[in-house]
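Appendix C: a fully annotated inverse folding record. The material below is reproduced so that readers can follow the format used throughout the book. The structure is listed first as tokens, followed by the designed sequence.
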């Protein structure tokens, strides 16, 4: 597609940058906060140039104190602001976990609906970049388990742009997981499009023999698996969940009723991962349609390994195709 005035090819990281820029231009109550988000522009340059253009009172470099960052954002939200805070890396979110799950997620219910906390917590997550310890985690299931939080993850530049807009506009707190290994993947972004619902799954490839379900960094891998399977005459449908909580079970169910087989793929550990909830729900909903058990592909139940071993830990094309073969063998 040729670029137009409203459509352009952007890396996923730049799409988030432009989405934040649009939000800052639109609403003076929107603030961007986090470690190194200002002068440095973020370690991945996602917030590059924003402090220069909007000033230090709108794009705020914070101390290295994740609990303080989120706690301050909660206080600002109580005063009518809409903070967008960055946790620099996935593994650094845990000092702020208490603030997120006991305050941010609970205030709406605690106040009987009178208090809203429109806070977006941005978290670059996942592996594939050769990082050191605590820089390649996938903690999305921990947050999805907590009622009161929305948990989303875009897989492409267009979704990154529009889902960030929708997250900022939400009156509920949103945990926005950004697949760091996809930051530099380019995609077409139409900045004047009408986006679909934030929590609606999307079919990225139609198929008839089996459904692959993924979100964030694993969607591209599932598309590659579908391409490889097609060379052997297998037709795989790829469904991008986009949202982990709430989760669009209706779209998963509709796809499985067509294909009768399901493989769920995510980077996080398979043990107690989001794939377990999907497998349980779809088994309940589609028991009489399924021709094979729901299979899961993900990380191992072990600490994330050193960089030289991460390719052995992360789901690979071969591991996804092996699960496809096992499902089709039933």
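Designed amino acids, in order:
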């Amino acid at each position: 597609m040729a670029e137009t005035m409203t459509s352009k090819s952007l890396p996923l990281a730049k799409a988030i940058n432009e989405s934040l820029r649009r939000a800052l231009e639109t609403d003076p109550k929107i603030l961007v906060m986090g470690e190194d988000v200002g002068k440095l522009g973020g370690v991945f340059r996602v917030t590059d140039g924003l402090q220069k253009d909007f000033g230090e009172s709108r794009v705020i470099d914070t101390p290295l104190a994740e609990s303080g960052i989120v706690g301050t954002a909660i206080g600002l939200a109580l005063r009518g602001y809409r903070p967008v805070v960055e946790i620099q890396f996935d593994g650094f979110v845990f000092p702020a976990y208490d603030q997120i799950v006991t305050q941010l997620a609970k205030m709406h219910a605690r106040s009987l609906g009178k208090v809203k906390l429109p806070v977006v917590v941005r978290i670059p997550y996942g592996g594939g970049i050769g990082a050191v310890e605590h820089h390649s985690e996938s903690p999305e299931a921990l947050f999805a388990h907590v009622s009161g939080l929305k948990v989303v993850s875009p897989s492409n530049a267009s979704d990154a742009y529009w889902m960030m807009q929708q997250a900022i506009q939400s009156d509920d707190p949103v945990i926005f997981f950004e697949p760091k290994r996809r930051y530099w993947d380019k995609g077409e972004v139409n900045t004047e499009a009408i986006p679909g619902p934030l929590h609606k799954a999307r079919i990225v490839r139609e198929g008839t023999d089996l459904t692959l379900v993924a979100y964030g960094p694993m969607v591209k891998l599932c598309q590659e698996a579908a391409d490889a399977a097609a060379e052997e005459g297998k037709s795989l449908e790829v469904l991008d969940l986009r949202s982990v909580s709430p989760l669009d079970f209706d779209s998963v169910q509709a796809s499985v009723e067509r294909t009768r087989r399901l493989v769920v793929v995510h980077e996080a550990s398979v043990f107690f991962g989001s794939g377990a909830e999907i497998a349980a729900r779809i088994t309940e909903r589609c028991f009489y349609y399924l021709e094979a058990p729901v299979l899961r592909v993900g990380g191992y139940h072990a600490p994330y390994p050193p960089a030289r071993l991460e390719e052995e830990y992360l789901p690979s094309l071969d591991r996804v195709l092996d699960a496809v073969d096992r499902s089709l063998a039933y």
